Amino acid sequence: MPLLHITVLVPFLLALMIALLRGRMRKLHRGWLVLAAPLALFIYFLTRIPVIKGGELGYETLSWIPSLGIDLVFHLDGLSLLFALLITGMGTLVFIYSIFYLDKRKEELTPFYVYLLLFMGAMLGVVLSDNLMVLYGFWELTSVSSFLLIAYWHRRQKSRYGAQKSMLITVFGGLAMFAGFLMLYVMTGTFSIREIWSQVGDISGETLFIPAMLLILLGAFTKSAQFPFHIWLPDAMEAPTPVSAYLHSATMVKAGLYLVARFSPVFAGQHEWFWIVSGVGLITLIYGSIQAMKQTDLKALLAYSTISQLGLIMGLLGMGSAASFYTGEEAVFYTAATTAALFHLINHAIFKGSLFMVVGIVDHETNTRDLRKLGGLVSLMPVTFTLALIGSFSMAGLPPFAGFLSKEMFFTAVLNIRQLDIFSPGAFFTLFPVLAWIASIFTFAYSMIMVFQTFFGKYQPEKLDKKPHEAPFGLLLPPVILALLAVVTGFFPNILSKSLIVPGMNAIHPQIAASSPFYVNIYFWHGFTAEVWMTLGVILLGIIVYRVYGRFSLVEKEWRTGLTLTHVYDGSIRLVENVSRAVTGLYMTGSMRHYLMYIFTLIIAVVGGTMLYSEGITFGQGQYAPVTFFEVVAVLVLLTGALAIPFAKSRVSAILMTGMVGYMVTLLFVLFRAPDLALTQMIVEVVSVTLFLLCFRHLPKLKREKVSLKVKVPKLVIALGFGVTMTLVALAALGSSPFEPISTYYVENSYKLGGGKNIVNVLLVDFRGFDTMFEITVLGLASLAIYSMIKLQLEQDNTPVLVRNRPEASNIRRYARSNDVLLQSVAKVAFVIIITFSLYLFFAGHNQPGGGFIGALMAAAALVLIAIAFGTEFVEKVLPVDYRKLIAVGIMIAFLTGIGSFVFDAPFLTQAFDYYDLPVMGKTELTTAMLFDLGVYLSVIGVTMNIIFTVGRDN
After folding, report:
1. Strands 58-65 and 70-76
2. Which residues partner with 922 through β-bridges?
3. What is the mean pLDDT of the segment spanning 820-844?
4. In this structure, how many other beta carbons lie within 10 angstroms of the beta carbon of residue 809?
5. What is the pLDDT of residue 426?
């Protein structure tokens, strides 16, 4: 398997390992088990720097769904390398930090690290994917995993609210982005980003080009918390600090920036792209900086400062797109904005990551983040103060830290943009440096507030829950490393310029790089330039703003919010809930009969109407085989049983007649020479009747309802209409298909491509293996849902309580069993025979009637027989199997079998077979499909027995 695919796969495999180890190795903090993964990935990507710097790009492909043009194509260039290093490097530090931040005795750590690893893998997938559909899949996985991380402390209402808010907004943006991707595909006929680049000249005039651009930008703005979609980020601060330091400083919030940078070669030549990206960025910059001044919670202050800084980088990327309107030296002139964006992207991850960790330390040691309660901590926490000072000064843009350099480059970019002469009126561009300068003043002020309001001023021990002290070494180490990076990068910025920034520029401006290589040289002193005077003004006015803030005790002020975007969001959610509740109340009556009537009526209208108004539909007249006497008898018995069910006077009679109908269907399959279907139907009927009988004892006595003729007639019409519609659908399927039957393909290739003579089994485990894998997954989820519904109940106070713990249930016999000695004697012999037959069906199923599904149902039937004869307790004692875990093992085996094909550069779930001479057995066929079938076998046994035993135990 290609190395890039392994780097993405590693976090997911490690997450699976951690999940399977849950409950084991309790004495070891889970963080130590997973720390090696991000560190190893970071080292690997470091080794790629000289390769990418030398101009060699990584491009690796694994075939996945080639018929749809969807393959796992991963591409490593300067831009993706920069983000990969941020993801893995910050990930390593966050994992170290979390080990000392989260107490293994108080927190459930397994889910935390599973979610964190899922997020890391998804982010790597986003920045490395070249295929739009694969990128979108990873993009939404980042939303899901971040939702789980934000809601980690799920018992807190604010955590749940913040997680839901971030999920709804970012997924909404993701769906918009997905629509934009589809539009690009319609225009280009490819999902490859590289191939789309090559067609920009042909598609830029297309009608769908601008809508696709707007939708993609919507996805980027929601992810990177740009105004007005920023409202999710402050509420996401309810997540544990390691999550905030990782997601909200270096990774998730920068995914939108990555998307804008990645699609700059496609859209940067459009005026709309320039105005929207730069305009939204600058508005977000100044809005976030003003809002940060109003915050009293340290994490909220950092949240709004993050929004502001993300707006700064977004604005720079927009201004950098002006280079696409020029060629030669003029184009290079405007790429200074892109250079500043990439440099500040790195700096922001460094200083904001360290500041989040510092805030976490303050919270950890004082139990508060409230600025009104903090102060005077400098003597108690000197190391933490030093880290806060470095991070805050770098954020404020003060020398000698790296933040000063990227802020100066930002000023250069906004001053350069005034010379842009392709738009009218050009005087409008004067607003760019004005807005940037004002925002920088507030940035300076809130940076000073953070460090000096926290560590200087009056110490207020009476407002703190515990006496503060310096944090342990483990908590200090990650922010110390980041603080050192802020200093080292400030003194030696060209370490980054040549290794990461220039390759990143080449990826964002490939046309310019092709004509003239980029040269980036970053240094402190340029003379008394406009940028220096702007910086001096920022410092002077920033100090004044900070002094005014302290002089008038604005930290104590309750700011009037009025109508905010959060109020609009909350009102919209309430409106949607109220409307949906009102509409749902019109048809959700609680009656299964009503629901079936709605469903059947819709099917009659849609399907019947389609057949009525569609041309070319015939009903297969004259194409039927002769009807035999035995088929007529079987159908008559089947109809008799079906018609008798509504008139049954007891539920037992109804269940038995339902079983009779099923067995007649089995007989028809036998008569039609379909042994696989007959076996499956027979075992399904056995298990179904058993399940019905188990449920029967929970139901009230069957009573005949008195229903008026007005109610009966509509039901009769719907029943007849649905029956006629389904009959016509079956007949139309025989005579109306405009295509050649696909069954011919399966008959010709079942043995040649699948290595099996049993077409049905080859179809299930090879040709349609994807369907089978998802089917067993759905069955597993349904089984677990049944278990949850039966085992958990809601008391009046809505507190979940295990049913088995009810005191009144303690004296009830838990397990039903038979006292029939003859049944028990026969069951012992029958069990061995049935299990043997089950294994035969499993092993022989590839070439003879059978397979994993049928074999599993047969094994489940044997277990049900033993349970009826001896009781469920006996089965659990003899076979102490957790059937829920068996479901998971089965699904995992099936999934890993599919992934295994990647090792041989084959598409997912590609099966292989060959013949080998084995001792005793002689020439024997071995096929990977058997491993997949084993997964099906185990999962179906687990599903069936979990349902049977759960229902059978319930009292």
Report:
1. antiparallel
2. 918
3. 89
4. 12
5. 61
pLDDT of amino acid 819: 64
Is residue 784 within 8 A of residue 884, CB to CB? The reply is yes
Evaluate whether 675 touches 849 at the Cβ level (below 8 Å): yes
Based on the number of CB atoms within 10 Å of its own CB, is 853 exposed (0-12), middle (13-18) or buried (19 or more)? buried
DSSP strands (E only) in 513-639 = none
Classify residue 225 as left (phi > 0), alpha (psi -120 to 50) or beta: left
Give the total residue count for the chain.
Answer: 955
What is the predicted pLDDT for the residue at 556?
64
List of E strands, 4-116: 58-65, 70-76
Q: DSSP secondary-structure letter at 499?
A: I
The pLDDT of residue 309 is above 60: yes
Fill in the DSSP letter of residue 367. Answer: S
Q: Position of tokens 């399904």?
A: 684
Q: Is 792 helix (H, G, I), strand (E, B) or coil?
A: strand
Q: What token pair was written down for 257?
A: 């920036």
Beta-carbon contacts of residue 36 (< 8 Å; ≥ 6 apart):
none
User: How many alpha carbons lie under 13 Å from residue 667 in its C-beta half-sphere?
Assistant: 15
Residue 818 burial (CB count, 10 A): 14
> Could you tell me which residues come within 8 angstroms of residue 215 by beta carbon, excluding any fewer than 6 positions away?
176, 177, 179, 180, 183
| Helices and strands in the chain: count of H runs, count of E runs | 42, 6
pLDDT tens for 711-756 read 888 888 999 999 999 988 888 877 766 677 788 888 888 888 888 8
Closest CA to 438 of 308, 302, 279, 294: 308
Q: Which long-range contacts (CB under 8 A, 24 or more apart) does 695-699 make?
A: 695/951, 696/651, 696/652, 696/655, 698/954, 699/651
pLDDT at position 813 over 50: no
CA-nearest of 403, 386, 401, 393 to 476 is: 386
The two structure tokens encoding residue 917? 């001479």
Q: Is the pLDDT of residue 414 over 90?
A: yes
Identify the CA nearest to 92 among candidates 48, 37, 145: 37
DSSP for residue 921: T
Q: Are 292 and 442 in contact (CB under 8 A)?
A: yes
CB burial of residue 642 (10 Å; 0-12, 13-18, 19+)? middle
Place of tokens 């483990």: 474
Distance, CA of 335 to CA of 319 (rounded, Å): 8
Q: Are 138 and 74 in contact (CB under 8 A)?
A: no
- Return the pLDDT at 561: 67
Q: Give Cα 912 to chain centroid, integer Å.
A: 31
Structure tokens at 869: 């004869």
pLDDT digits (tens, 9 = 90+) for 76-129: 999 999 999 999 999 999 999 999 999 888 888 899 999 999 999 999 999 999
Alpha-carbon distances of 831 from 99, 671, 859, rounded to whole Å: 51, 28, 9
Judge contact between 410 and 436, C-beta under 8 A.
yes
What lies within 8 Å, CB to CB, of 697 at 6+ separation is none
Which has the closest alpha carbon to 85: 254, 256, 260? 254
| pLDDT for residue 1 | 64
Cis peptide before 461 (omega within 30 of 0): no
Burial of 628 (0-12, 13-18, 19+ CB in 10 A): exposed
Q: Tokens for 337?
A: 């904005």
Quick check: 935 pLDDT over 90?
A: yes
pLDDT tens, position by position, 573-627: 999 999 999 998 888 888 888 899 999 999 999 998 888 888 777 776 666 778 8
- Is the overall model pTM greater than 0.90, yes or no? no
User: What's the pLDDT at 795?
Assistant: 39
Sign of the CA dihedral running 145, 147, 150, 153: negative
What is the average per-residue pLDDT within 29-56?
Answer: 92
Residue 863: φ, ψ to 5°: -65, -40
Q: Which tokens belong to 536?
A: 């001096």
Q: Do the beta carbons of residue 254 and residue 345 sit within 8 Å?
A: yes
